[in-house]
Amino acid sequence: MTETGTFTTRAAASSEAAGDAHAFAVESARLMADLKCEDVVIFDVRGLSEVTHFVVIGSGTSDRQMKSVADDLKELGAETGFHRYGNERDEATTWVVADFVEVVAHLFEPGTRAHYDLEMMWGDAPKVGWHRGTTDENSP
What we know:
The chain is α+β, with helices and mostly antiparallel strands and 140 residues long.
């Protein structure tokens, strides 16, 4: 195969992987909202982050809810081929991180979310539409 052919194949594979990550980020946000997380947002951080493609952020109402949502995200990831790389939470469970490599989901207690303000950190990244029935101009 020619160098050009190899490059095209790699580019197509990369685009497909980004599309899969986009779909998983959207389904993760929908799951979080369905499980009563509030203020769910997705940032497309491709080109801004060297470690992930999408960041999903939501606020939980209790430590029990946040742990349960993280477990359900793990199940969703396993069903869709996005196995959780890591899971971290602070002692008081005010912040839970579920890392699926291409997608990183953050679940916060509202006060902790305001303190760390990841929305400001990723403010240059486009937001991704995830509500059912909406179209997303930022999809790959």
